[in-house]
Structure formats: structure tokens, C-alpha cells
Amino acid sequence: MQTIVVTGGSGKLGVWVIKEFVLQGFRVVSLDEKWSDKLNCKQINVNLTDLGQVVGALNGADAVIHLAAIPAPLGYTNDYIFGNNVRATYNVLEAASILGIKKVIIGSSESAYGFCWAPKPFSPNYVPVDEEHPSLPQECYGLSKIVGEQTGEMFYRRTGMQVFSMRFSMIIKPQDYSLSSISKPEQYVRILWSYIDIRDAASACIAALHSNAEGHHTLNITSDDTLSDWPTEQLLSKFYPDVKDHRLNFSDREAIVSNKLAKSILDWNPIYSWDQIK
């Protein structure tokens, strides 16, 4: 039986990921600074910014799902958010390297592109936005995610470790879909109306765990459709008329952030949509 360590196991996505891994028969250990009564697995209280604690906690693991982070540039000072997220990611990868763990899945974010939290809003260079699009954050959180991805790439170069940096869109639980906001596209303009159902986010982590793809891969983990009842072309025409480079003929509500690479690399497909709850 493989042992999977999940950092941030008490968090929103961590709880769902651990539930799925337990159901699949894995031995799971949650690392977090908080105890959760929602988890049916071993829990260890760990400060991920302390490398010694991380090495001790990862000992015996076969793979790591690193989801722990301050999840937005809110609630803490900028330097703390950046420092916490970057050091925790580095420590997880360094500890995995020391212990000979060959697979690490990192929770990155679509915020790495910079659109969501930008003090000076800007438009994509082209659509759909794929992993080749420049990352241009103007704040600490998006920058911390880029540094985390580059750290994963460095560890692959140094050790041959298999690393997946998962750029999750806004993660939504089934009970949290709001049809009233779906009809107000201005609410989600900064995230390009991108989202991922938490069940699909968890299945993407499982797909990465099972993947044999070598190297470091940065992947958009997002839905096939937009978080809006407007057609995609109408959204772009209304809110991003300056974006002239359309690399797809949008015919319905196709996503503006592309998940094509994740589908190919992970052999994964999102199956849930807000449209199913109508």
C-alpha cells in the first residue's frame, strides 16, 4: 500500500483529495497546522516553513500532494504571504529530494497569470489562455505561485523528480454554485469566468498521482465551460474587446482558460459543470 502525504489536508481541497485517496485504498497522512474532524486518516501538526519538521513528517511517503498555502493576497502582509508560500513549497520539494520521494504534486493557481488580483487590470494577450501565456502578476500571491512552479522545475532538473504544478481555477463545491451570480458576468470578469468543480480538482490530483509523464509540468486545471450563462464570444466582446487574437472559434460557452494540456498529460477530463444544477 502506497503512503500519500497531503499538505493542507484540513483545507477546502485537501479534505476532498484525502477522501478520494482513502477510498482508493491509499494510506494517507495529512500535514497541517489545524486538526480536522472531517479527515479519516493520520494527521500531523507541522509548520511547513521549518525544513526539519517537513523532513520528519514526509519520512516514509511515496508521493506528496502539496496543497498548503495562504490562498489569496488577503489577511496577511505581502511579505508574509510570499515568504510563507515560497518557503513551504521549497521545503516540501527539498525534503522529498532528501528522502528520495520521486513524485510531488504542487497546488499552484491560475492567479500566476496575474489577471485576478492585479491592482492595474489588464487583458490577456490572446485567448484561450494556455500555459504558454506570459505570467504577469502584480502582487505577492501570484508571484509566490510562479516561484513555486520554478522551484518544482529546478528540482526536476536537479533530481529527476516528477513534479506537477497544478494551476487551479477558482475551486467551487457543489453546494456553493449560485445561479444568481451566473447571470452577472461582471462578478467573474477578473478570473476570465474560469472555475473548477472541487470533485474535478480532486480527480486531477489523482490523475497526476497515477501519471507516468516524466519531468515538470505546469497545467491549467479548469472546467470546459465558463462560469456564466453568456456565450463566450459575447463575454469577450463586452469585457475584453481589446483582445483581438482569438485562437479558437468560440461557438457556445467554451472556457477562456484552456485545459487542453492537462487533458493530454494527465489523461483527465473535468465532468462537472454549474450548468448541471439548473
From TrEMBL:
Keyword Oxidoreductase: yes
Keyword Ribosomal protein: no
One Gene Ontology MF term: oxidoreductase activity
InterPro entries from the UniProt entry: Epimerase_deHydtase, NAD(P)-bd_dom_sf
Keywords: NAD, Oxidoreductase
The NAD-dependent epimerase/dehydratase domain, residue ranges: 4-221
Pfam families named among the record's database cross-references: Epimerase
Similarity section: Belongs to the NAD(P)-dependent epimerase/dehydratase family.
PANTHER family, per the entry: 4-EPIMERASE, PUTATIVE (AFU_ORTHOLOGUE AFUA_7G00360)-RELATED, NUCLEOSIDE-DIPHOSPHATE-SUGAR EPIMERASE
The protein's name: Nucleoside-diphosphate-sugar epimerase
Originating organism: Cohnella abietis
Taxonomic lineage: Bacteria, Bacillati, Bacillota, Bacilli, Bacillales
